[in-house]
Give the backbone structure.
Amino acid sequence: MTGIPWLLHGLLVLSCLISDASAIYTPLREYAGNTFFDNWAYYGNVDNTTWGNVTFVDKDAATQKKLTYVNDAGNAVVKVDDLTTIAPAQLVNRDTIRLTSLHSYGVGTLILIDAVHIPYGCSVWPSFWTYGIEQEWPLAGEIDIIEGINGMENNQVALHALGGCLKAEVPGQQTGVTIEGDCSKPQGCLVAETKPNSFGMGFAKAGGGVFALQMEESGIYSWFWSRPDIPANVQNGQFSSQSIDTSRWGIPSAGYPSSRCNITQFFPPQNLVLLTTLCGVWAGNPSIYQQTCKTPTNSCVADNIIGPGDKFATAYWEIRYIRTYTNNNATSQSPSDSTSKGPSVITKTVTVSATVQDTAATSNGAHAQRHKPLGMLWILYCLVFFWR
């Protein structure tokens, strides 16, 4: 080791090992089958966050109206009321669901959701996201894993944080297209998915797919795979006995390296949120609504909320599972530490971006590379240095 002190050599070798350790995740918790709804809080209030034209019902009402249940396939169904007819004179909200997990998940966590169907249709605004429940938004951040509206065909991923969190653009670190790089803007630092069938009718016709979110000090990364493209290490094995190696997944759809955003500072442990709202300030914005929806009066509320509920026949989630994993360094909280807060605390930012058009995906060859900032070149260097 000429010219390099043994201590420095040891530190370099240790850093090599640590750089790869966060790629391996072990099972932590699964929401699936008959116990899917056991560890969620039902909101039980009107949508006072995105000002959608809905009432998020409580668990008793959801069960009675069969808005949440497990179907014959063993999948969790979370739906908008599609049976009630609302007369114009009533001016009432339509019932739907908002669920918040009783557990929170921090740095060192991997989250997977396998969905067969995501709500879609004019006025429909589904999202699966996270936020730091212990503080008023946006003090503890927000991560949008799945979100879209109306007739959109592509999912959008976003981070929301206080000023000082920016999206670093590193060539070859994501396949999606960055729309906004400042995470403190109303739409957050926004990335549009470019892979086909990530949202809407296309997602349903393809049999759904899997979305993954990795939270590490080195960055936050998100993947999407349509049903035919799900990696073998996600498809195979039982949850309780299967570790996940994310280094085999290739480049993510959205990458947020920590070089311009301190992940541990801006994103303390996050609770999961699954919901569907209707119209509101994004899906119901007249200029945005009319981009993908052509209805008799071009009014989101008048042409959708009012009248028979059969317009919402496709406004439901069907979920095979939500799984969480840890690299054993994760920060999280148990239900006793992380309980459902009242309406004044549970908030969500308003997404104001317009519908994103399809864009060409990046070179397929890039998908074979490792997504982490240190990458395969660093690992190769570590091996060469260690054995010299």
